[in-house]
Specification:
Order of helices and strands: HEEEEEHEE
Pfam families: NusG_II (PF07009)
Distance between the termini: 75 Å
Shape: extended
CATH topology of one domain: mini-chromosome maintenance (MCM) complex, domain 2
Number of helices: 2
Radius of gyration: 24 Å
Keywords: Membrane, Transmembrane, Transmembrane helix
Number of strands: 7
CATH class of one domain: Mainly Beta
InterPro entries: NusG_2_sf
């Protein structure tokens, strides 16, 4: 019996070599499938055109990624400094208590985000062009 679970008894499970081989095939298959899915999603992300900064759900600034700049985001809780450099967005400084936003990696692909929870600030990468109708058929 197991000391912490007296209602369960320890039982030996017998398995032959064939079962172990099938287990390895199953594990390898799952890993290959996970790798393919990861590469598909990683490869499908496009480089963004602008960084959109929101505070408490309200857009406060849109910064194009093709222009190097620095922008200070002031909130009632404190400040964050967002840097756009070489097509990448990054939070380089923040006075929040945990500083996790400044520790996050820089971003440049559409849909990537940097979040500062204490300041309720989010930097999101979006496509640079507006989605418009290319043509009307009919």
């Amino acid at each position: 019996m197991l000391p912490f679970f007296p209602i369960y008894e320890k039982k030996e499970i017998e398995s032959g070599g064939e079962m172990k081989r099938l287990d390895l095939i199953l594990i390898a298959g799952v890993l290959v499938l996970a790798g393919i899915i990861y590469l598909v999603f990683l490869g499908s992300a496009e480089d963004g055109g602008k960084a959109v900064i929101t505070v408490d759900g309200q857009v406060v600034q849109e910064l194009p990624l093709d222009e190097d700049t620095t922008y200070q985001v002031d909130t009632p809780e404190g400040y964050n400094i967002v840097e756009i450099k070489d097509g990448w967005a990054d939070v380089i400084e923040a006075d929040c208590r945990d500083g996790l936003c400044a520790d996050q990696k820089r971003i440049h692909k559409t849909g990537e985000t940097i979040v500062c929870l204490p300041h309720k600030m989010v930097v999101t990468i979006e496509a640079g062009t507006e989605n418009t109708v290319d043509a009307v058929v009919g």
